[in-house]
Design a protein that fits this description.
Keywords: ATP-binding, Kinase, Nucleotide-binding, Transferase
Largest sheet: 11 strands, antiparallel
InterPro entries: ATP-NAD_kinase_N, Diacylglycerol/lipid_kinase, Diacylglycerol_kinase_cat_dom, Lipid_Phosphate_FormReg, NAD/diacylglycerol_kinase_sf, YegS/DAGK_C
Domain DAGKc: 37-183
Structural class: alpha+beta
Protein name: DAGKc domain-containing protein
Number of helices: 8
Strand content: 25-35%
Order of helices and strands: EHEHEHEEEHHEEEHHEEEHEEEEE
Number of domains: 2
Pfam families: DAGK_cat (PF00781), YegS_C (PF19279)
Radius of gyration: 21 Å
């Protein structure tokens, strides 16, 4: 049987081989894993502070149902994150130890970290267990402030419904986006990457998550302060550079929603092997007020100064040389331009 370490809570005595930051001890769920020679090892990564602590509270309520529904056939392993990037380390260790699935419990931020844990030094993390016969799958129990990725599939913030998906165990390979720059390692995203105004708004929104979904409104207001549309250079699919004037925002979608339910890349589909790029040019603050309903219901592609295309990759540079053009993915700030965004087709198996 797979041996997990102190990053995971089980009743067995285990050995933990950590190459990363120390992982705090977690409580046992009381699952007896000695009754079967091969039970599925499911690692649930929980951000207990997510959604102002609601994620932790909802998780504790879910544990009894989780045990009754999955405990007969699975080793249920729990790991609580203790800070930024902790979920990345836990995920890598779980995959190396041969986990059948790593399930993110929380919002898009937790899911984002777990997805990045599936990769290391530009390559997928591989199991080090000889008896491992299949890859580690990604699962999701949406319990955070924002669950935009789940909206693409019509999943609700219903933890029992999510546990049923895990119980069924149906898998399908999905695409992942990768962001690279001049002086940083690759960064991965499963939902949407965006540039300039929307990324700046997201940067500010992250500071107000204690206000729940209101944080998106506050972030947008702060993003507009001092905002200026910028001329940029764009290269699609390794082609020629094209100058694009008065860029307001560039959204690159592997899935459809961001910003608390805005259907910004309505044609994105994480099974196609492509990313959808939506560009907003020469937008003023009042354009967002007048057209906000179209941005939320996904009918904005017919609006003037909005364009879209399907790509394998997109590179973006600013022209002015002033710097400070924000980029984020899945709501996480990733610095500034220049950046290249590409798709990795069928990169991760996900539980549906």
């Amino acid at each position: 049987m797979v041996a997990f370490g102190r990053g995971f809570s089980m009743v067995n005595t285990m050995v933990f081989r950590s190459e990363f930051q120390p992982i705090t001890p977690e409580r046992f769920l009381g699952i007896d894993s000695s009754s079967s020679s091969r039970r599925k090892d499911l690692v649930f990564i929980v951000n207990p502070q997510g959604a102002n602590g609601r994620t932790g509270r909802e998780w504790r309520k879910l544990v009894p149902y989780l045990k009754s529904r999955l405990g007969k056939d699975c080793n249920i392993c729990e790991s609580l994150t203790s800070g930024p990037c902790h979920a990345i380390d836990i995920t890598r260790e779980a995959i190396r130890e041969g986990a059948d699935a790593v399930i993110a419990v929380g919002g898009d931020g937790t899911l984002h970290e777990v997805v990045n844990g599936f990769f290391w030094a530009g390559k997928p993390v591989a199991s080090q267990m000889n008896e491992s016969t299949r890859s580690t799958a990604l699962g999701l129990i949406p319990l955070g402030t924002g669950s935009d990725f789940a909206r693409t599939f019509g999943w609700k913030n219903d933890p029992c419904e999510a546990v049923e998906r895990v119980a069924r165990g149906l898998r399908s390979k999905i695409d992942v986006g990768v962001i690279s720059g001049e002086s940083c390692e690759n960064h991965y995203f499963i939902n949407i990457a965006d540039i300039h105004l929307s990324a700046k708004a997201g940067f500010h929104a992250a500071r107000y998550k204690r206000f729940g979904k209101l944080c998106y409104v506050i972030g947008a207001l702060q993003g507009f302060m001092g905002h200026q549309n910028q001329d940029m250079r764009i290269k699609y699919n390794e082609g020629e550079w094209v100058t694009c004037p008065q860029m307001t925002a560039i959204c690159v979608g592997n899935a459809k929603y961001f910003g608390g339910g805005m259907k910004i890349t309505p044609n994105a589909d994480p099974f196609t092997g492509n990313l959808e790029v939506v560009i907003l040019q020469d937008f003023k603050w009042y354009d967002f007020v007048l057209k906000l309903h179209k941005l939320y219901n996904g009918t904005h592609l017919s609006v003037k100064n909005v364009s879209t295309r399907s790509v394998l990759s997109i590179e973006v540079e600013e022209i002015s040389g002033k710097g400070g053009i924000y980029i984020q993915s899945d709501g996480e700030h990733l610095g500034f331009l220049p950046k290249k965004i590409s798709v990795l087709p069928a990169a991760i198996e996900m539980i549906f």
